[in-house]
Amino acid sequence: MPPKKRTMLKVVILGDSGVGKSSLMQQYVNNKFSTQYKATIGADFLNKELTLEGRKVNMQIWDTAGQERFQSLGLAFYRGADCCVLVYDVNNSKSFDALTLWRDEFLLLANPRDPENFPFVVIGNKVDVEESKRAVSAKRAQAFCKATGNIPYFETSAKEDTGVDQAFETVARNAMAQV
Ligand code: GTP
């Protein structure tokens, strides 16, 4: 019998510039973190192989520069996505307020079959930063996610590698449900 085909999943990460999109992806896929800020130019993707419910899965994670908005990336970036990860920085309320815009932009450009039920995951990153700098409480973020179609919510530190695997496991499971 020929080996079973690998399931391919496409995941898109969106959020304001500097919230840690590239860092989350690097930590999840390569277990690496750098404090040096290197703005993403255009779009980039990494592959992560994982086994989900006994099936081999190839998750392609697409990262984009937070500065590039509104179609500048081209529709190919968005189309065919199986899950969209919306990232904000818990110490930056502007990046939290932008989540709705990113979600709307994704739905407009990706144009999924069933927009009402398309899987999003929200990540509040940089929870390692001292508590006094925190601008958005977990409670506020959870309330937003609940009101926006019950989106799963995770808090992470790409720097200290906390919560990253858990968040992406939910991303993978929800993406899998789409294929
Ligand atoms: P763009 O490419 O401009 O869209 O940025 P991005 O969202 O990909 O952010 P990036 O991953 O490049 O991280 C921006 C800066 O935040 C870098 O200096 C990172 O080192 C830092 N950073 C990322 N994640 C964390 C984190 O969990 N904690 C802390 N303290 N810093 C982080």
Automatic annotation (TrEMBL):
Pfam families: Ras (PF00071). Belongs to the small GTPase superfamily. Rab family. One of its GO terms (molecular function) is protein-containing complex binding. This is YALI0F19602p. One of its GO terms (biological process) is regulation of protein-containing complex assembly. Keywords: GTP-binding, Lipoprotein, Methylation, Nucleotide-binding, Prenylation. The keyword Nucleotide-binding applies. It comes from the Eukaryota. GO terms for cellular component: cytosol; fungal-type vacuole membrane; late endosome; multivesicular body; phagocytic vesicle; vacuole; vacuole-mitochondrion membrane contact site. NCBIfam families: small_GTP (TIGR00231). InterPro entries: P-loop_NTPase (IPR027417), Small_GTP-bd (IPR005225), Small_GTPase (IPR001806). The lineage of its organism: Eukaryota, Fungi, Dikarya, Ascomycota, Saccharomycotina. It comes from Yarrowia lipolytica (strain CLIB 122 / E 150) (Yeast).
